[in-house]
Design a protein that fits this description.
Chain A is built from four helices and nine strands; from the N terminus they run ββαβαβαβαββββ. Chain A is α/β, with parallel strands linked by helices and 184 residues long. Classes of the chains: A alpha/beta (184), B alpha/beta (337).
Chain lengths: 184, 337
């Protein structure tokens, strides 16, 4: 894990270094648990980009999966349905599988919770590992990442926005509560 | 192509979200496309171990069917249940309305039971609009077919099916065959195809089963089936609605089949990769031969499957529009995520 100094922009090279770090952590993490057969699942859309980058580095046997958690968000009554929902695609059997859930940023933990709820509607996985590129650290639920590219402590009103899919760069941006589309 | 219609406040919120789904008319292309896009995400729900998503958990959907329909009611019920809603099916024939209670009294009672959505089917055109105008703003209304007027969710599941098999609507020639006069489905299909940008919509049928001013809806009219089918990409056979017509409109069912029944021979005129659709239930040997209904190009059963996903999309979008509208009125309490 890399301790990042506060910065407002992450270049493609910096993101690449974070991805290398995540891939190395993930290899160790899975080896320690004796897991050789696993599947990567990226949460749309930034998480899917990060998962794709990890998939290229780690090359697991299973195809890359993607998850759109829009139907599982806990703030439907506040914000309604997101305008662009992308189909979830899990091209492997979730039941008894070791899964690595990947997102670009972890903040409140609500996206990860929604993703877990959705995964369990497909089956009962043997394990789920959470891997994130950035940990923003403003947790509202007891959820933490097993694998993390960088810890970036941001005050309320700021978040990291990943830009991609290629090259991947990131910016710290200001957001309003109304304008926030609910990332992690 | 029909121009983008003006915003219909009965159907859309101030910021353009769906609040009621009463007819295709009055809706912009973007909303129709959003229904299709969202439906694409809901299709997979039927393939999961747990065939549910929690979007409408805690909501109550009331199926108000004033006109019998097992198929449509069942798909609406399944759609609501797959969204985790609680569903009430009101058997109107046995309800208090038959004991003299007025429609408005019944609606007020259902509203008092904290219902969130009414799915309305009625033999009278305009009944869902009437209910939408008089119901409390907290309840979303979805038209499940009214008289000869509209059947918008059926039209949207047909649009979904067409887009699924043909990739889009640009350059597409679509033929709708048969009893256009009595068909609320055809009317909604024509509006949807025009709004979504189909190249040509043809209606094919005997003069007695075509409305006199049908061209005003932006369609080409054919009375000869073979001519009308020439090079079309999509063929939609309509159910002959015998219950809605007096015998003078048709000499006989066999005569109708002889002139307008879909069989393999007639389909030679259509594009070789044309798909065959039918809103069901099928009158085999009247509007369509079994060899076509069960043939390789038939997508009729897929329409049924897609129908659940499309209704899930419409229900969740209406609820979403209503929730955000209500919250907008009462202040935004959204929290940072």
């Amino acid at each position: 894990m890399t301790e990042q100094a506060p910065q407002t922009h992450y270049t493609a090279a910096q993101i690449d270094a974070l991805l290398e770090s995540m891939a190395a952590q993930l290899r160790r993490h899975l080896a320690e648990r004796g897991i050789s057969d696993y599947a990567l699942i990226g949460i749309h859309s930034g998480g899917a980009w990060v998962a794709d980058a990890l998939h290229q580095r780690l090359q697991p046997a299973a195809e890359l999966g993607t998850l759109d958690i829009s139907f599982y968000r806990d703030d439907f009554s506040h914000r309604g349905l997101q305008s662009r929902v992308r189909p979830t695609a899990l091209p492997f059997d979730v039941d008894a599988a070791h899964l690595v859930l990947v997102d670009d940023a972890l903040m409140s933990g609500r996206t990860a919770r929604a993703a877990l709820n959705e995964l369990f509607d497909y089956g009962r996985p043997a394990s789920v590992t959470l891997a994130v590129l950035f940990d923003i650290g403003r947790r509202e639920l007891p959820i933490s990442a097993d694998i993390c590219g960088a810890h970036v402590a941001l005050p309320p009103g700021q978040r990291v926005e990943l830009r991609g899919p290629a090259p991947l760069t990131a910016d710290v941006i200001e957001y309003t509560q109304r304008g926030n589309q609910g990332r992690t | 192509m029909i121009a983008e219609p003006a915003t219909d406040p009965l159907q859309l919120t101030g910021d353009g979200q769906l609040r009621n789904f009463l007819s295709i008319e009055g809706l912009p292309r973007s909303v129709l496309e959003q229904i299709l896009d969202n439906a694409a995400s809901f299709v997979d729900v039927g393939d999961r171990a747990i065939k549910k998503v929690p979007l409408l958990r805690g909501k109550t959907v009331v199926n108000l069917f004033f006109e019998a329909s097992t198929r449509t009611r069942t798909t609406f019920e399944l759609a609501a249940k797959r969204l985790s809603a609680d569903v009430l099916n009101i058997d109107i024939a046995r309800s208090a309305t038959s004991k003299g209670e007025s429609l408005m009294d019944m609606l007020r009672n259902l509203e008092a039971m904290a219902s969130d959505m009414f799915v309305v089917r009625h033999a009278d055109s305009g009944a869902p609009h009437y209910i939408a105008r008089h119901a409390t703003p907290e309840v979303a209304i979805i038209n499940a077919g009214d008289g000869r007027h509209a059947h918008p969710t059926q039209a949207m599941l047909d649009m979904y099916t067409i887009r699924h098999y043909k990739g889009g609507f640009a350059g597409l020639k679509v033929a709708i065959i048969g009893d256009i006069l009595h068909s609320r489905v055809a009317r909604s299909q024509i509006h949807a195809l025009n709004i979504l940008g189909a190249e040509e919509v043809r209606v094919i049928g005997p003069r007695t089963l075509l409305p006199a001013d049908i061209e005003r809806l932006g369609v080409s009219v054919y009375h000869d089936l073979s001519q009308g089918l020439r090079d079309v990409d999509v063929v939609i056979a309509l159910r002959l609605q015998k219950e809605r017509m007096d015998s003078a409109l048709l000499p006989s069912e066999s005569e109708f089949f002889r002139l307008y029944g879909l069989n393999n021979e007639r389909l030679r005129h259509a594009h070789p990769e044309a798909i065959i659709m039918h809103p069901g239930p099928i009158n085999r040997g009247v509007e369509i031969a079994s060899e076509v209904a069960d043939g390789k190009r038939s997508v009729i059963l897929h329409q049924v499957t897609f129908g659940i996903a499309v209704r899930m999309a419409v229900m969740s979008m209406c609820m979403s529009g209503r929730e955000t509208e209500q919250r907008g009125r009462g202040g935004d309490h959204a929290t940072a995520r």
